[in-house]
């Protein structure tokens, strides 16, 4: 099966005022459709940088990045934005919900992004469908202030799912949640993989990592496979 | 095109959401911009109204823009040529100026020489019971008579000179001529007839008999002399065409010709043929007045622009502060695929909408102000009657609002577009 994502020899060097620092060093990674991958590592090990490169927020200094077999490692920003919209869904530790918008409007944000136009009715249907997938359709009209942390994170997941992405990138999505709520959030993310969506989860939580198909350790910019216990 | 439309709609939707989310800030931006836009609207409206007032005075006293006025002394031959040429035409009207005295016979009028009633210009004439008139240098006792300038017309003059009806009705040219000529007098003449109770008996030099006129209406013609308007065909029943040019009173004839009419060429050629002196003038009041007002308008617009700039600085300030607060939102929007251009568009849409709302408020306030002024001063200032808010001022307000929105939103838009996407990762 062709890998959805294929990183080969990805290197990222941070060029600051002091000595250049290698954040990622020759990272190889392949993610297949429906596969879930956990990336664990200490703070500062380069997990978020790797996720930034995967999500086309940042570019690697060396190496190749194939998405659906196409090299996108040197993509111009305009095309990168289009791919972010069509292929990726993002979930962050902080939910980044806009407090002046309702849950439905927050989810709708991913549809009103200048990458194609959906009529209002179709947009509303997609939004409700995404909210249903994460089990909070009944909160569609609520603003974030009236929702719990878990509910807010589910809204964020719905926002990531609403465009039916091929890959979900989650950066410590349970970091701000209690164990029970965190587990429910991971359930919602894993549910997406059953529909063929790839999942890359960056986490500190070994238990959540253990629920993924594979767990990779990032140590000093080098990615190694870990065998789940 | 479709993509542009989608982005435009997206920018509009998100911009409106942003405005609704930050109502107080939007209000503050509007307040800072309001005076500037209002100043532009008021200057533009003032200039348009002043221009209209000046032009309307000229239209009233002379003719509407584009009309050609052919003037000539009233001589028997010239009169015949003019009347023959304009007969039955709607694109040209001849106006013959005569002197008439209405009131008691054998007396000097209260206003010799058709002077305004509160002034004495001297001159004039006195007419006797059986018709003949002579200059009033021949002493006659003063009595109850009013002297007016009588304008006899071959057709309806109002398409050329929009005389303002005051009371009664205007002359009807489509009916059978009346043997009792119908007169429409101007405001000054109406003042005289109100002040002095005179018999309705009109004497004109050269007339076969005294005429009993019917007063049918009053108009404002902008003339300070008492004047009466009459249908020429009703007058000629009593005053033969050959006698229209009275050697005692002289008189002047004018032909008002619509733009593009062949009458001007035909008439000037014919009059030249009989050796009559003519003078031709084409009214171009708007252009002349606009040139006069241009400097004033520019000076005031420059001052208004300065006030507007202060408003722009206000929008800019609020815009930069808002973008600073919304860094995460913009980074997140980029993360979900929003292009940089659209981010800039969102910020610009917000400032443009703010500018448009402000313009709408400023235009509304100006229009309401103008309405109030017309209600309060409309009776004393005729040009204000029926005055509509000038659309040019509305357009200027919208342009000022949009320009302020672009100027005030440009830098914040650039800043929003440049927010690094990784901000959401590091948060």
Question: Would you summarize the structure shown here?
Answer:
The complex is a heterodimer of chains A (229) and B (427). By secondary structure, chain A is of the alpha/beta class. Chain A has helices spanning 47-54, 77-87, 103-108, 120-133, 149-161, 179-193, 206-210; strands spanning 5-14, 21-31, 36-40, 62-67, 70-71, 88-91, 167-171, 198-202, 214-219, 222-226.
| Biggest sheet architecture of chain A | 6 strands, mixed
Strand percentage of chain A, roughly?
A: 25-35%
Q: Into which percent range does the helicity of residues of chain A fall? A: 25-40%
Head-to-tail CA distance between termini of chain B: 37 Å
Number of helices of chain B: 11
Shape of chain A: globular
**CATH-defined topology of one domain in chain A:** Rossmann fold
* Total separate domains of chain B: 2
Strand segment count of chain B: 12
Could you characterize the architecture of this molecule?
The complex is a heterodimer of chains A (229) and B (427). By secondary structure, chain A is of the alpha/beta class. Chain A has 7 helices and 10 strands. Chain A has a 6-stranded mixed sheet, sandwiched between helices. A 4-stranded antiparallel sheet of chain A has the order 2-1-4-5, with helices on one face. In chain A, strand 1 (5-14) and strand 2 (21-31) form a beta hairpin. The mean pLDDT of chain A is 89. Chain B is α+β, with helices and mostly antiparallel strands and 427 residues long. Chain B has 2 domains: 2-60 and 286-426, no CATH class; 68-282, no CATH class. Chain B has helices at residues 2-21, 23-61, 76-86, 187-195, 232-235, 263-273, 285-325, 327-335, 340-377, 391-417, 423-426, and strands at residues 68-73, 92-103, 125-127, 133-135, 145-153, 164-168, 182-186, 202-204, 214-220, 227-231, 252-257, 279-282. Chain B is elongated, with a radius of gyration of 33 Å. The mean pLDDT of chain B is 85. The chains are: A alpha/beta (229), B alpha+beta (427). Chains A and B meet through helix 1 and helix 2 of A and helix 1, helix 8, helix 9 and helix 11 of B.
């Amino acid at each position: 099966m062709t890998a959805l994502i294929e990183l080969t020899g990805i290197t990222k060097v941070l060029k600051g005022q002091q000595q250049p620092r290698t954040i990622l060093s020759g990272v190889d990674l392949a993610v297949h459709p429906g596969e879930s991958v956990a990336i664990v590592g200490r703070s500062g090990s380069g997990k978020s940088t790797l996720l930034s490169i995967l999500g086309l927020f940042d570019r690697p200094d060396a190496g190749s990045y194939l998405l659906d077999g196409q090299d996108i490692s040197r993509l111009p920003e305009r095309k990168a934005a289009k791919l972010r919209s069509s292929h990726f869904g993002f979930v962050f530790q902080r939910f980044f919900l806009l407090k002046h918008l309702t849950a439905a409007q927050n989810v709708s944000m991913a549809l009103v992004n200048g990458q194609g136009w959906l009529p209002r009715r179709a947009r509303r249907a997609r939004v409700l469908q995404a909210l249903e997938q994460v089990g909070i359709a009944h909160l569609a009209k609520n603003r974030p202030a009236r929702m719990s942390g878990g509910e807010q994170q589910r809204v964020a997941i719905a926002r990531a799912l609403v465009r039916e992405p091929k890959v979900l990138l989650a950066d410590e999505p349970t970091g701000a949640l209690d164990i029970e709520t965190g587990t429910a959030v991971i359930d919602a993310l894993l549910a997406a993989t059953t529909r063929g969506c790839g999942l890359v989860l960056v986490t500190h939580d070994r238990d959540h990592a253990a629920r993924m198909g594979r767990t990779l350790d990032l140590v000093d910019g080098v990615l190694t496979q870990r065998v789940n216990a | 095109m479709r993509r542009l439309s989608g982005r435009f709609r997206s920018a509009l939707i998100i911009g409106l959401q942003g405005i609704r989310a930050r109502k107080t800030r939007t209000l503050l931006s509007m307040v800072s911009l309001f005076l500037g836009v209002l100043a532009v609207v008021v200057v533009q409206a003032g200039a348009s109204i002043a221009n209209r007032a000046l032009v309307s005075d000229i239209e009233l006293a002379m003719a509407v823009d584009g009309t050609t006025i052919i003037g000539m002394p009233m001589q028997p031959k010239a009169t015949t040529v003019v009347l023959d040429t304009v007969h039955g035409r709607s694109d040209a009207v001849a106006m013959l100026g005569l002197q008439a005295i209405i009131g008691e016979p054998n007396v000097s009028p209260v206003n010799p020489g058709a002077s305004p009633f509160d002034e004495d210009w001297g001159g004039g004439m006195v007419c006797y019971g059986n018709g003949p008139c002579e200059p009033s240098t021949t002493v006659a006792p003063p009595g109850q008579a009013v002297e007016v300038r009588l304008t006899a017309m071959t057709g309806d003059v109002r398409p050329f000179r929009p005389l303002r009806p005051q009371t009664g009705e205007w002359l009807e040219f489509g009916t059978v001529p009346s043997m009792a000529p119908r007169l429409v007098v101007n405001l000054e003449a109406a003042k005289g007839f109100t002040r002095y109770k005179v018999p309705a008996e009109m004497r004109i030099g050269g007339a076969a008999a005294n005429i009993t006129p019917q007063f049918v209406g009053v108009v404002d013609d902008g003339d300070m002399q008492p004047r009466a308007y009459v249908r020429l065909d009703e007058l000629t029943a009593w005053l033969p065409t050959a006698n229209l040019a009275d050697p005692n009173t002289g008189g002047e004839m004018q032909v008002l010709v619509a733009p593009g009419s062949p009458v001007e060429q035909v008439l000037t050629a014919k009059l030249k043929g009989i050796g009559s002196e003519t003078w031709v003038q084409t009214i171009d009041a708007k252009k002349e007045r606009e040139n006069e007002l241009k400097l004033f308008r520019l000076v005031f617009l420059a001052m208004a622009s300065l006030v507007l700039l202060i408003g722009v600085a206000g929008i800019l300030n609020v815009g930069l502060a808002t973008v600073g607060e919304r860094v995460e939102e913009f980074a997140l929007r980029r993360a979900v695929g929003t292009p940089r251009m659209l981010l800039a568009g969102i910020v610009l849409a917000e400032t443009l909408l703010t500018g448009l709302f402000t313009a709408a408020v400023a235009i509304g306030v100006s229009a309401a102000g103008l309405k109030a002024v017309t209600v309060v001063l409309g009776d004393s200032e005729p040009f204000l009657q029926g005055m509509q808010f000038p659309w040019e001022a509305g357009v200027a307000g919208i342009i000022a609002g949009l320009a302020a929105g672009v100027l005030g939103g440009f830098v914040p838009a650039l800043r929003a577009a440049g927010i690094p996407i990784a901000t959401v990762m590091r948060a």
